[in-house]
Amino acid sequence: MSLFLALVGRDLRLALRGGIGSLVAVVFFVIAAALFPLGVGPGLELLQRIAPGVLWVCALLATMLSLDRLFQEDYEDGSLEQLALGRLPLEFVVLAKTLSHWLTTGLPLIIAAPVLALLLDMNSEGFAVLVLSLLIGTPILALIGAIGAALTVGLRRGGVLLSLLILPLYVPVLILGAGAVDAAIFSFGARAHLLILGAGLLGTLVLAPFAAAAALRLALE
User: Which of 25, 26, 113, 175 has its CA 20 to 30 A from that of 18?
Assistant: First the structure.
């Protein structure tokens, strides 16, 4: 556990040293969501209707911005090979790096989401479910993204291939996340959506580190 936490702390320090680079996802999230009122018009009824989907799509795209660098920098400087040979199993290395990525990307998005929901005039009844769905859903996006990042590590222009690989897998999370907020707003009950998201989180938490670790071992051979 100490090695795991040390790796998480290392990646967090590297992200913070990157300065504005660590905030790119949040800046993109804010700008992308703010552009929708300009594109579709200021009509409050329309903005209220599309707000959950807009926020979830923007959050999904924002989490993808730095996924291609999840393992790439360590791969290029040889650190990844050292980590693979270390005492910490590679599956836990994947989990630690994914956790640090979520803390620097997903968590700030969750904090910013209610402010952008106000900007889009979303019904206040959906605020709590929006935050909760993002809290459950963004780790799923990060874990699935870790598999794609491991499969494309070392490839030229791997970011484009990464997007093609993981976007189809993100669709169920997007549907369930946005659907939960819609259900809360229209008083249909978001419990079912959130339970399925929770089951998805448990499944990816167990399976994704093994899949990503297997892909990294192939890349390091």
Answer: 113
Q: Which of 28, 60, 67, 31 is nearest to 177 (CA)?
A: 60
The whole-angstrom separation of Cα 52 and Cα 122 is 8
Q: Is 89 left (phi over 0), alpha (psi -120 to 50) or beta?
A: beta
Among residues 78, 29, 73, 76, which one has the least CA distance to residue 54?
A: 29
Note the pLDDT tens digit of each residue in 74-130.
888 888 888 888 888 889 999 999 999 899 888 989 999 998 988 888 888 888 999
Q: What is the pTM of this model?
A: 0.90
**Residue that the structure tokens 């993981």 belong to:** 166
Residue found under tokens 């093609």: 164
For residue 38, give every residue at least 6 positions away whose Cβ sits within 8 Å of its Cβ, in sequence order, or none. none
